[in-house]
Write a structure and sequence with these properties.
two-stranded antiparallel sheet
């Protein structure tokens, strides 16, 4: 009995004794490949890509309407519209991992990204499917955002490029290792184009102010999801089940990575957010819990001392900062805050002065230490030293308003004394 030239399935012979070359299933696959190979379509044929582009452009237009610069939006504007800033993201605003993939830092940024998204998005829709393309964009975008803040938690990252690299990575692994319904010539063309895109883009990212970690995170996540999406099962239902399972497993891995990041940085970033909002009571409660669990956490001690200073409890600030100073006597930051706490409490002014002088020796570029030292010199009736300290502080930080005000008073006093 004759068999299919591709899969070996037995074939029926017609009344004339002639059998087809391929079985019905393999013939259907071949026909689909031929159609996909010659059909390009319009944006109406790629609704997922069109929707993703529309959301990105819509967010950018909304930012511009609300006052953000179209050339280079400020950092505050990018954060306000959902940028991925680790301090906020890991501090509890986890949704920024996703929203950042729809926010862009200027007209050039969004034009370049949307051009790439149109190209890769349409190809992904054609080879993987519509909802699969949206899922790849969202998952790989989150993967890029996670690696970005894992590498530099305090960096502000925005843009669709992590997700675009994710789609490219999925296409790369799918084309190279999967069984997509396209010709071998098209596979080679797609593969070489994506490899060139990746090498060129990563190389450019090493020279410019580009978040290559977001690109890498998206690309690697895309490589992971691309192969299972591109390997068809014996039936459409099983293939869809494999795709859904792959995407859910990838989402689970991203959740595990996110939880690990939050455990590493989240508590301290929550504290920073509370302090920024001047919610000192909540910040102090969290910091006291942290220092109780980890008595050697000098960073938590430093922030707790600052919080005590803000609510005018200098004695508590002195106690915790002295513990921190014992842990790290060479920390100019701890010495600076301890000197200020001494000034605010009933400690002898000589103690505050000596502590702040040591802090300045350890870090001569510490404007805060110089400003507090100037205040200590005023309290010790050492006007000339105070003037010198304030002048140095202003050189380092021209926006030091208190130092400028105190310096102006001291110079006025010196002028009056000279006129007598």
């Amino acid at each position: 009995m004759p068999t299919c030239a591709k899969c070996g399935t037995p074939l029926q012979v017609n009344d004339e004794g002639i059998a087809p070359v391929l079985c019905d299933r393999c013939a259907g696959v071949a026909t689909a490949r031929a159609r996909k190979g010659i059909y390009t379509g319009t944006m109406r044929d790629y609704p997922a890509t069109a929707a993703l582009v529309a959301i990105n452009v819509g967010v950018f237009v909304a930012m511009a309407i609300n006052g953000a610069s179209i050339l280079q939006p400020s950092g505050d504007a990018l954060v306000r519209w959902g940028g991925n800033w680790g301090v906020l993201t890991l501090g509890g605003e986890y949704w920024r991992l996703l929203t950042a993939t729809f926010v862009h830092g200027g007209i050039i940024h969004i034009v370049l990204n949307m051009w790439c998204l149109l190209s890769f998005g349409q190809l992904s829709e054609r080879l993987f499917g519509r909802w699969q393309t949206v899922a790849i964009y969202l998952l790989t975008g989150v993967g890029g955002s996670l690696l970005s803040i894992a590498f530099r938690p305090e960096r502000l990252s925005v843009g669709a490029s992590g997700a675009i690299f994710g789609i490219a990575g999925a296409l790369l692994s799918g084309v190279k290792l999967g069984n997509l319904s396209i010709t071998s010539g098209e596979k080679r063309s797609i593969f070489s184009s994506i490899v060139f895109f990746a090498i060129f883009s990563f190389s450019m990212g090493m020279r410019a102010n580009i978040d290559n970690m977001a690109h890498l995170g998206g690309f690697v996540t895309g490589l992971i999801v691309g192969l299972p999406l591109a390997v068809p099962s014996s039936s459409k239902g099983k293939h869809t089940l494999v795709q859904v399972g792959t995407l859910l497993a990838t989402a689970g891995l991203l959740v595990v990575a996110g939880v690990q990041l939050v455990q590493t940085h989240g508590q301290m970033f929550k504290v920073e957010n509370l302090l920024r909002k001047q919610e000192y009571a909540a910040a102090i409660q969290l910091l006291e819990q942290m220092t109780t669990r980890d008595p050697d956490n000098e960073e938590a001690m430093l922030r707790l001392g600052k919080a005590y200073e803000q609510i005018r409890q200098p004695d508590k600030a002195v106690a915790i900062l002295e513990q921190a100073a014992k842990l790290n006597p060479n920390s100019a930051k701890i010495g600076t805050e301890l000197g200020l706490a001494y000034l605010m409490s009933n400690q002898p002014v000589e103690k505050a002065t000596a502590t702040l002088e040591d802090a300045v020796k350890m870090d001569s570029g510490n404007a805060d230490a110089l400003e507090y030292l100037g205040l200590a010199y005023i309290k010790a009736n050492q006007r000339d030293k105070a003037i010198a300290a304030f002048e140095k502080a202003i050189q380092l930080d021209p926006d030091a308003d208190r130092a400028q005000a105190e310096l102006q008073k001291l110079r006025a006093e010196a002028a009056r004394d000279a006129a007598k």
